[in-house]
Write a structure and sequence with these properties.
mainly alpha; Arc Repressor Mutant, subunit A; Rna Polymerase Sigma Factor, Chain: A
Length: 185
């Protein structure tokens, strides 16, 4: 029995929800997947998240792999590369957003001042409460309980894209509300 046939059989079993088959593929390929993710992100925790996401996608979308287009490892590494680069780009955009989020107005009275000024905590709480419930819930779970967006998608049974959009929109609305509340009346 060849290794290629073994892999194809394992993929067939994964497609039919055989967890043992997924575990065997994980043991066989996770080291290389992690190495690539780590090389791109230079962060162990983030690389581990990418590994989880790659094998979650294999579990969910095993049928998308086409052996005619190349080896399974090549497919897994392509998925890894794409996810890691997307993650890196997202983090760059996020850091730029938080810089603008924290800088605030010309007087330096930005989000950081609101968040750390005890007199304004009530304003921040009220702004958070005024968000649509689906955005507030995602922000609370993400920022106060430490869930990743992928974990939130699973926990809430929502597509990852929906979670990401709600986080982005919620942060934008929160920023607008808080900066609007701090402007002189």
């Amino acid at each position: 029995m060849s290794a290629q046939w073994d892999e194809q059989e394992l993929l067939h079993r994964v497609h039919h929800r055989d967890q043992d088959a997924l575990l065997l593929l994980y043991r066989q390929h996770s080291g290389r997947v992690f190495a690539l993710a780590y090389r791109i992100l230079n962060n162990r925790h983030e690389a581990e998240e990418i590994v989880q996401e790659v094998f979650f996608r294999l579990w969910e979308k095993a049928s998308q792999y086409d052996p005619e287009k190349g080896a399974l490892l090549a497919w897994l590494l392509t998925v890894t590369r794409n996810l890691a680069l997307d993650f890196k780009r997202r983090e760059i955009r996020r850091s730029r957003f938080f810089v603008s989020f924290n800088v605030g107005d010309e007087n330096g009275e930005g989000m950081a001042a609101i968040a750390f000024n005890p007199g304004d905590r009530e304003l921040a709480r009220q702004a958070l409460l005024s968000l649509p419930p689906e955005q507030r819930e995602i922000l609370e779970l993400s920022y106060f309980e430490g869930f990743t967006q992928t974990e939130l998608a699973v926990k809430l049974g929502q597509p990852l894209g929906t979670v990401k959009t709600r986080v982005r929109l919620g942060l934008q609305k929160l920023r607008e509300l808080l900066l609007g509340l701090k402007e002189p009346q």
